[in-house]
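Query structure, 325 tokens:
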């Protein structure tokens, strides 16, 4: 019995020493930040703003790699298979949680594959339409889609995209099933909305603010609890009577499961430095967003958000019956 206790104590001391050494040595070289979407897109912009400051804090380059494909699950799978040493991290939006239900088969277990660094930011969403769409305001829109549901099209950026999830929530809350039109990205979806090929689109402020301000699309409502500063004249859906229509494109930073806590602590400190950086704050404001609070920018804050969002979206996705292979 004494021998077993000594052996257990020795093993614990060894593990603690290994963790300490790995934290002291980290990072050993450039850190790869996986981004599941194309360069220049909203998530990529957020990632590069954060990486710019993190590499100063870590003393090594933070290289953003756009690992696109399979609705973001390709990058998630790569992270799940990576060595848990902090040298590979992932910056992903809320799609990492909706994919847990949306995809029938994944190459990883979304409930056990990841470790958590912290939340980053939340980008607001809003519902827009082609500029000559008949309904003049949100109340008229709700009446119109109920009377013309077979004729109204709702664009999205593809299966698993936030615009897809936002559209599913809108249809569930209104009780109206519209014709959904998937695109290969928000860019072409917005282009066809502006051109009048599709009627409606739920998009991030990062992509929709410009077209709204130049009257290339019509804004009906924001999917937020409060009005957003960059578009103060656009009311929230809740103000107009549609309760529960709230979708924010929140972003989080992840590591492979099993990454030592001291390494995560170093990454978290670098992330928080980025979120307090004046240039980051300024650029986020231009995109219609802001850094999350210090409490949210923690491993515990992200972990709680992650599992709450899986539970939130699972029944909505199942009710819609829209799955991805």
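Result returned for the query:
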């Amino acid at each position: 019995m004494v021998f077993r206790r000594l052996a257990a104590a020795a093993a614990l001391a060894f593990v603690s020493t290994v963790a300490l050494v790995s934290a002291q040595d980290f990072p050993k070289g450039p850190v790869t930040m996986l981004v599941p979407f194309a360069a220049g897109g909203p998530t990529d912009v957020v990632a590069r703003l954060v990486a710019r400051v993190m590499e100063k804090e870590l003393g090594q380059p933070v290289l953003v790699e756009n690992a696109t494909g399979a609705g973001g699950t390709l990058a998630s799978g790569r992270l799940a298979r990576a060595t848990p040493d902090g040298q590979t991290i992932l910056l992903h939006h809320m799609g990492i949680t909706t994919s847990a239900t949306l995809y029938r088969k994944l190459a990883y277990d979304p409930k056990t594959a990841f470790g958590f660094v912290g939340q980053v930011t939340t980008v607001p969403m809003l519902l827009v339409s082609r500029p000559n769409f008949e309904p003049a305001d949100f109340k008229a829109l709700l009446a119109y889609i109920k009377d013309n549901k077979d004729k109204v099209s709702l664009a999205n950026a593809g299966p698993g995209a936030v615009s897809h999830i936002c559209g599913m929530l809108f249809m569930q809350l209104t009780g109206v099933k519209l014709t959904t039109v998937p695109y290969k990205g928000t860019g072409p979806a917005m282009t066809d909305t502006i051109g009048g090929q599709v009627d409606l689109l739920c998009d991030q402020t990062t992509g929709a603010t410009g077209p709204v301000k130049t009257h290339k699309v019509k804004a009906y409502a924001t999917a937020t609890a409060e009005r957003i500063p960059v578009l103060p004249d656009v009311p929230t859906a809740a103000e107009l009577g549609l309760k529960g229509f709230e979708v924010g494109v929140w972003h989080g930073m992840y590591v492979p499961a099993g990454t030592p806590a001291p390494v995560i602590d170093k990454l978290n400190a670098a992330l928080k430095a980025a979120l307090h950086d004046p240039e980051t704050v300024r650029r986020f404001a231009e995109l219609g967003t802001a850094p999350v609070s210090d409490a949210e920018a923690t491993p515990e804050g992200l972990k709680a958000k992650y599992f709450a969002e899986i539970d939130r979206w699972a029944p909505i996705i199942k009710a819609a019956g829209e799955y991805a292979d």
